[in-house]
Amino acid sequence: MDLKGKGEFDSGHSHGVENLGASSYYFWVLALNLVFFFGVLIEGFKSHSLTLISNAFHLIGDVVALAVSLFASVLARKPASLRNSFGLVRIEVLAALATSVLLIVTSFIILYNAGSRLLLTNYGSIPSPSSSDLTWFGFIGVIVNLISVMIVARAAGEATLRRSNIVHFIFDALGWMVAILAGIVALLINFKPIDAIASIIISILIIGAAIQILTNVTKILLDSAPNEVDPIAIRDEIVQHFTQVEEIHHLHIWSLNSAQTALSVHVVISGEPSLHVAQELAISIKEYLRATFGIDHSTIEVECHLCDQPLHSTNGEHHH
């Protein structure tokens, strides 16, 4: 291991996220949405439109999410060190967690306000939002969010974070389409509850998307095996593919982030091979895992007999 200054080291693996271009992408999308946010918020309060105000709150959620994404993309470039052996690749997963929670909280606030407005029996006391405001801002909102999707989709870095931002923008675009519809309805029939109903629809859509992202992020933070990886299949494949392998145990598979999967396993091999032969087998298993299952980081511990662990189960799994 080649020790370097300030605790950095080269472990033979690239744990850092290659996202040198992500910061600039997030910066321009942040600037675009920040300008649009102030325009929507000011007009929403001027026109007493709950639909515009709810979209403004969702916009500030996106702005904060982009600011966190920008900060996380910078931190994620830091190389691995002796203390942070995988680098800071999970900082962007934490950012996706924070943005999802923020969207859920703001959406529930909007739901509460919209529900309170719908419960009012005297709709005459509710100021009517301008139908032209809803329609024009709706069209602008769709364009802004589609531009944001195209820019963020080109950014490198953690897929979960990128996906969470893209989902936010797509559902925000759908929300602005609802705003356009609300504006048209308000123009044609002057149906005042449409503003509150539209904001409820927008909030429900965003809550559903945020919960899905939150579920995926939680699995990563709990070190669960990725959904696309079957631990039992990997265990069986190693034993069947390599005739020298008698059994495996202490099999652990987890996600560093949505793009990187790690594995560690104890492999019992037959006979009494030399250290060189055992190392060649370990390298072959690593290459097989990379080619077959897309696992780039694997740690193989080769044994000539079961290690002295009374807690081993007979089916090759490890219980803690």
Automatic annotation (TrEMBL):
Domain of life: Bacteria
Domain Cation efflux protein transmembrane: 29-222
Protein location: Membrane
Family matches, as InterPro entries: Cation_efflux, Cation_efflux_CTD, Cation_efflux_CTD_sf, Cation_efflux_TM, Cation_efflux_TMD_sf, CDF/SLC30A
Keyword Transmembrane helix: yes
Key words of the record: Ion transport, Membrane, Transmembrane, Transmembrane helix, Transport
Chaperone is among the record's keywords: no
Annotated TM spans: 25-45, 57-76, 88-114, 134-157, 169-190, 196-214
GO molecular function: zinc ion transmembrane transporter activity
GO cellular component: plasma membrane
A Pfam short name: Cation_efflux
Membrane topology: Multi-pass membrane protein
Cited Gene3D superfamilies: Cation efflux protein transmembrane domain
Residues in Cation efflux protein cytoplasmic domain copies: 237-303
Main location: membrane
Entry's family note: Belongs to the cation diffusion facilitator (CDF) transporter (TC 2.A.4) family. SLC30A subfamily.
Record-given protein name: Cadmium, cobalt and zinc/H(+)-K(+) antiporter
Organism for this UniProt entry: Acidithrix ferrooxidans
Source lineage: Bacteria, Bacillati, Actinomycetota, Acidimicrobiia, Acidimicrobiales
Name of encoding gene: czcD
